[in-house]
Design brief:
There is one protein chain. The chain is built from 9 helices and 6 strands; from the N terminus they run E-H-H-H-H-H-E-H-E-H-E-H-E-E-H. It is an alpha/beta fold. A 6-stranded parallel β-sheet has the order 3-2-1-4-5-6, sandwiched between helices. The longest helix is centred in the middle third of the chain and has 19 residues. The structure holds 1,6-di-O-phosphono-beta-D-glucopyranose (B16).
Length: 226
């Protein structure tokens, strides 16, 4: 069996928006007198905006400081800060190795999708000039259960009409890797801090991605000749 689709996480795989999320959360945390640093930011990768704010409050021992509506307002405020930063992105912010991989995959008839839980994914893809490169961009608003649940990756595969076993998923977060594995797909981790199930293939950086590396490792697992 050979792979027919590659499904990409956005933040940390196509571009490094993790730093922008960090700066936006840091601005909010400073305003609210909450402690927040880059290490804590690692915990927020791949999880939703509201869940992220819960984690920050929990890490500060202030779980009960705000009611539901106030928490939503704070998360929205952070999103405003984040969207300001997204406008500074340009084509130069596409991570290394991504454009050649997208071109090679396209030339080989492999379908491509974006499986991000970010509600800002479309704007980010527009800013970095990749909006037209994908056959499908999953809409997180239509997904009931976010990563590590497999739903977002399964939705992408379903929209492409390709079976999960023929898909490769790429993510930089533990939640994303578990989402891919539970979907029954081949999981590639990019510099993941593994705290649970490990990906099938771990790469140090997106610069190590290439179609031949993905094909070789996928086919080895499926015991198919490339
Ligand atoms: P937004 P991914 C995730 O994107 C980020 O890793 C995570 O830090 C963020 O909280 C989440 O998107 C929601 O993003 O606030 O823009 O809707 O990793 O699934 O591409």
């Amino acid at each position: 069996m050979k792979p027919k689709a590659i499904l990409f996480d956005l933040d940390g795989v196509l571009t490094d928006t993790a730093e922008l999320h960090y700066l936006a959360w840091k601005r909010l945390a400073d305003e609210l007198g909450l402690s927040f640093d880059r290490q804590q930011n690692e915990e927020l990768k791949g999880i939703s905006r509201t869940e992220s704010f819960e984690v920050i409050l929990r890490n500060n021992g202030q779980t009960d400081r705000y009611g539901k509506e106030e928490k939503e307002n704070m998360a929205n405020r952070k999103n405003g800060y984040y969207r300001e930063l997204v406008e500074t992105l340009t084509e130069k912010d596409v991570l290394p190795g991504i454009k050649p991989l997208l071109e090679e995959a396209r030339a080989n008839g492999i379908r491509m999708g974006v499986a991000s839980v970010s509600h800002n994914a479309v704007r980010v893809l527009e800013r970095i000039g990749l909006i037209d490169r994908f056959d499908v961009i999953a809409d997180p608003a239509k997904v009931k259960r976010l990563k590590p649940d497999p739903e977002i990756f399964l939705t992408c595969a379903d929209q492409l009409g390709i079976s999960p076993a023929e898909c490769i998923g790429i993510d930089d977060a533990q939640a994303g890797v578990e989402s891919i594995l539970s979907a029954g797909m081949y999981a590639v981790g990019i510099h993941v801090t593994v705290t649970g199930k490990a990906p099938d293939l771990m790469l140090a950086s997106t610069a190590d991605l290439s179609l031949s590396v993905l094909m070789k490792n996928f086919c080895q697992k499926k015991q198919t000749v490339v």
